[in-house]
Amino acid sequence: MRILIKDIHTIVQVEEDVLRTTAVKGSDMKYLPRLEKAWLLVNDDIIEDFGPMSTYPDNGNIVISAEGKWLFPSWCDSHTHLVYAGSREKEFVARSQGKSYEEIAAEGGGILNSATRLNDTSEEELLKQSLPRLKEIMMQGTGAVEIKSGYGLSLEGELKMLRVIKKLKRMTPMAVKTTFLGAHAIPREYKENRRGYIDLITGSMLPAIAEEKLADYIDVFCDHGFFTVEETDVILKAGGKYGLKPKIHANELAISGGVQVGVKNKALSVDHLERIGTDEIIALLGSNTMPTALPGTSFFLGIDYAPARQMINAGLPLCLASDFNPGSTPSGRMAFVLTLACLKMGMLPEEAINAVTINGAVAMELLANYGTIARGKKANFFLTKPLASLAMLPYYYGSDLIDTVFVNGQVQNE
Ligand code: NIG
Ligand code: FE
After folding, report:
1. CA 31 centroid distance within chain
2. Are residues 29 and 85 in the same domain?
C-alpha cells in the first residue's frame, strides 16, 4: 500500500544521498538536516521517496495532508527497563519525604523490591502489564527500543523476563533489542556470597539465554553498592563468549571505573554518566563506545545531570535515552527527555534530537534502517501538530505535540 503525505511543513533529520553509518559527534551535533515544504511517499513498510512540494507526484496514492505539521524520524530509545511487575510509588512517596534512593535500596526496596514482585508474577501477567507500556511509548513517538531484563535475579526470573521481551517483539511493529541485565543487583540470598551469584550468571544464566537466543546485549550495573569493576569485567567477558556485546550502567552513583571497563570491553554504550570527569572523557574519546545520558533519572532522583556540554565540546557523540523503569524513571516519554536535555544539560534542540535519533539508533546497531528519514529505510516516523519552530517541541513540555504515528508504514493511531 502506498501513502503519500503532502504539504509537510518540515522533514527533520532527512538524508538525501549517501547515508550516514556512524554517530553524530561534537560540533556536528548542532546540525540537523531539514527539508521544508515537502512530500513523502511510504510504500508498505518503507520510505520510498520524498522531495520538495515543487516536485509533488500527484499520482493516485492515498493522500494525507500535513499542513503546518513537522515530520520526525521515530525516537530510538536505547535504554529501558519497561518489563517489570507492579510499581514502586511507595518509594516515590518515601523519597518525597527525604529518603534517598540508596537508603531505600539498602533497606531492601529498589531493584530487590521489583525482583520479589517479578518472581511472584506469572509470565502471562508480566506480558499483560508490559504491553501497554510499549504501546504508550510508541504513541509518544518511539519507534525502536532496547529493553533490559534485570528484575529476575534468578535463573527462572531472568528467563521469564527475556521470554516476555521476545513475545513483545513479535507483538509490536517497533524494532526491539534485548539486553540481559542479570547483574543488576546482588539478590538477597547471595548477599554473603557475591561470587556465587556471579557464577550463577556466567555458569547457568548465560548458557540458557544463549540456547534460547534470548538476548542481543549484556549489561552490568557497575556502580557503588552494586557490581565492582573486577566483577563487571568477568561478567562482560563471559557474555562476550556467547556473542553478547556490552551496554553498561556506569557512574550513576559514583565515579565507578565503569566507563573504563566498558571501553576496555568494547561496549556499544556506557549509560548514565551522571558522575564522570576528564579521565572518563579521555577514555571515551579513544573508543567507539557511545556515551548515553539519562536525564529523566537525574530529574526523578534529584541527582546531577551528565555533563553533556563537556562531552560534546570535547568532540564526543552523545546519546539520550529514557531509562523507563519503575524506580528511578517511571516514564518513557522522550519529548520530556528533550526538554531536560535543553534546560538542564545545556543542549540545543538540534543536539538533543540528534541524540535521540541517529545516536540512539547507533547505540542499538539499527542505523541502517532507523534513525533518519532516508529512501529505503523503515517508515517509522511521526507527524507533529502544527509547530512554528523546532524548539516548540521541547518548549511545550506538558503538551502532547505528536499527532500521527507511523511505525512499519502503518498509522498507529486508533
Ligand atoms: O537505570 N541504575 C540501575 N538501574 C535502573 C534503576 C532500576 C530501579 O530502580 O528499578 C536505572 O536507573
Ligand atoms: Fe537503567
Report:
1. 22
2. no
State mean pLDDT over 114-132: 98
pLDDT, average across residues 245-256: 94
Q: Report percent pLDDT > 90 for the chain.
A: 96
Torsion angle in degrees (nearest 10) through CA of 311, 183, 231, 365: -40
Question: Per-residue confidence at 17, pLDDT binned at 50, 70, 90?
Answer: confident
Ligand minimally distant from the alpha carbon of residue 301: 1
Are residues 297 and 337 both part of a single domain?
yes
Q: Whose CA is nearest to atom 6 of ligand 1?
A: 328
CB of 325 shorter than 6 A to ligand 1: yes
Whether the CB of 271 sits within 6 Å of ligand 1: no
CATH number for position 400: 2.30.40.10
Domain that holds residue 100: 75-363
CA 193–ligand 1 middle distance (angstroms): 22
Q: Please spell the DSSP secondary structure of 102-154, one letter per residue.
A: HHHHHTT-HHHHHHHHHHTS-HHHHHHHHHHHHHHHHHTTEEEEEEE--S--S
pLDDT in tens, 96-113: 999 998 899 888 899 999
Query: Where does a domain end: 330, 345, 363?
Result: 363
Give yes or no for residue 299 CB within 6 A of ligand 1.
Answer: no
Distance (Å) of CA 270 to CA 138, 256, 276, 294, 313? 24, 12, 11, 11, 18
CATH code of the domain covering residue 213? 3.20.20.140
Residues 323 and 390 in one domain: no
Same domain, 207 and 168: yes
Which pTM was predicted? 0.98
For residue 222, the cross-strand partners are 227, 250
Strand partners, 146: 177
User: Would you say residue 374 has pLDDT above 90?
Assistant: yes
With a 6 Å cutoff on the Cβ, whether 330 touches ligand 1 is no
Any atom of ligand 1 within 6 Å of the Cβ of 114: yes
Is residue 202 domain-shared with residue 163, that is, in the same domain? yes
